[in-house]
C-alpha cells in the first residue's frame, strides 16, 4: 500500500480518536445501541433505493453528454463506484472507478468524464440547496446561529471543497491529450444546449439527497438526537459537503466532526451527533458493500445498442 493511500485512512483514524478522547464514549455507544435492528435494515434498503435514483441521474447526465450506454451497464458501473467509496478518499473517491468503467466502455470517453463531473456538481448543488433551505427556516432566523469559531472552521472546510473543485478540475483537464480536450469541448457545447435535461437530473439529485437526509433523521431520532427539521437539513447537508474533502476514508471522521460542529449552536449534545453520524456510517459501509455485490451479480448488457 502506497504512502498516499494511507493518508485518508490515517485521517479518519485521527479524527475518530480525537472524538473518542473529547466526548463521553458511554453516551455514544448508548446511542448506537438504541437503534433497533429493523431501523438499520430499513436504512440500508433506503440507502440502496436512493442510490438507484443516483444511477438514473448519472445515466441522464451521460445522455446529455452524448454518451451511449445502456442503463444496466450504467447501474453496474455506478454500484461498482459506490463500493469503491470504501477504498478511496472522501465520499467521491469511487467516482474514479465508475467513470473509468464508463469511459472505457463508451464511444465517447470525454463525454463520460464531463458528464460525470457535472453529475457530481449536481449532487453538491442539491446539498447546497438544502443548506440554504435549512438556514432560511431556522427557528428564530439566521440570528439564531450565533456563529462562533467552530462554525468558522466548518465554513473554511466547505470553502476548501469549492476551491479544490474550482482549481483542481481545470488543472486536470489541461493535462489531457489534445484529442480528448477537443472531445471535451464538443461535449461541453452539447451539454450547454440542453438545460431542461440538466434541470431534470438536478431534480433527481434533490430527491436522492432528500431521501438520504430522511434516513439520517430516522437514525438520529432512534439514537436520541432531537433537532428541528431546518437544523437537520442545514447541518447534515453541510456535514456531507465537508465529507467531500479527500482527507478521510469514505468521509468517515470528517462527517462526524462537521456534524457535531454544525449543531453546536443549537445546544444539541455532540456525543449524540457523533452517534447519529456513526450510525449513518454503518449504513454506508453495509450499503456500499451490498452495492459491490449487486454490481457483480448484474449481468452486463450487450454492446450493440451502445455503438
Kindly describe this structure.
Helix content is 76%, strand content 0%. It is globular. Helix 3 packs antiparallel against helix 9. It contains 12 helices and no strands. By secondary structure, it is mainly α. The protein has one domain.
- Give the overall average pLDDT: 82
Largest sheet, strands/sense/barrel: none
Unreliable segments of 5+ consecutive residues: none
Number of helices: 12
The CA-CA distance between the termini, in Å, is: 38 Å
Integer tally of domains: 1
| Overall geometric form | globular
Quantity of strands, as a count:
0
Offer a few descriptive terms:
12 helices, 307 residues, single chain, mainly alpha
Lay out the secondary structure.
Elements: H1 3-22, H2 25-33, H3 37-64, H4 71-84, H5 95-105, H6 109-136, H7 149-174, H8 178-192, H9 195-223, H10 229-242, H11 254-263, H12 270-297
Helix pairs in contact: 2-12, 3-4, 3-6, 3-9, 3-12, 4-5, 4-12, 5-6, 6-8, 6-9, 6-10, 9-12, 10-11, 11-12
Short description:
By secondary structure, the chain is mainly α.
